[in-house]
Amino acid sequence: MKNMTCIVCPFGCKLQVRPLDVDGMEFDIKGNKCPKGLDYAVKELRNPTRVITSTVKIKYAHLNRLPVRTSEAIAKNLMFKCMKKLDFVEVKSPVKAGDVIIRDILGTGINIIATRSM
């Protein structure tokens, strides 16, 4: 049995998850107060994803780092590869919030976008 806390809504339900098969793809989930908890637990167990927030170097701006994020959640197992790639990125000012800094990072179809104008 695995214990999780659902982070989808403010309830923060304490979920108890028990795998129902050897592959670990079917689960018995208890403790959720709404259907969102079921969806969250299944997604988190089958294919966990995270939105990455970070910074990249920027030239000709009043600051030397530009805040960026993934346009949507990326597979958790790709987080460190993505961060490593961001280490070598340098953009030039001007940049507007929402501008695509890297298109299709790691072949995922997910973009890295600026979260601030500079």
UniProtKB/TrEMBL annotation:
A Pfam family it matches: DUF1667
Top-rank taxon: Bacteria
Stated name of the protein: Molybdopterin oxidoreductase
Upper lineage: Bacteria, Bacillati, Bacillota, Clostridia, Eubacteriales
